[in-house]
Amino acid sequence: MVNDVESGADSPESGAAMASARWSVLLLGVIAILFGVLFFVYPIPTLTLLATILGIYWLVNGVVVLLSLSGNKTGWGWKMLVGVLGILAGVTVLIYPFYSAVLIPTIYAIIIGVEGLVIGAIYLVQGFSGEGWGTAVLGVLSIIFGLILVAHPFIAALAFVLLLAGLAVVAGVAAIILALRMPG
User: Fold this and answer.
1) Higher pLDDT, 15 or 177
2) Which range marks the domain in which residue 95 is found?
3) Does some domain include residue 4?
4) 9: how many CB neighbours lie within 10 A of its CB?
5) How many domains would you assign to the chain?
6) pTM (predicted TM-score)
């Protein structure tokens, strides 16, 4: 005998799934706004918390990579290096979470600044080699922003945190609006 209840778009199961999805999106929106507000109000403590979570991840990842050597010996040298560095980085971040919260974004800002200088130089050479003035202008702008990042990496890191805070609030508001517009 064929089942009398067909599952489809109007079934109770799909309605429950839609309501669950709606609440999930709404919850994610609220969490994003909370993180954004925390970043605005308490940028360094929030960054310290995130650095601590990153340290835990690096530590656990290092241990897992080293444990994987018992089952798979391919690339053992690289796995050993990644595992040991992961453990060292994780322990260091967990011992010094405040310094790590300042140092990690600062290092990223320096790396991005150096990359901006290199890319800017390449664009500048290409612009004067016949690519056009647009490429040369992009090269100059990239060099200027690269110099700013390298000269003031801590300020750039703090600006990055505030940018993330703004994006989190905007994404959270968008998620809440989407959740309110979802059926269910």
Assistant:
1) 177
2) 13-181
3) no
4) 7
5) 1
6) 0.60
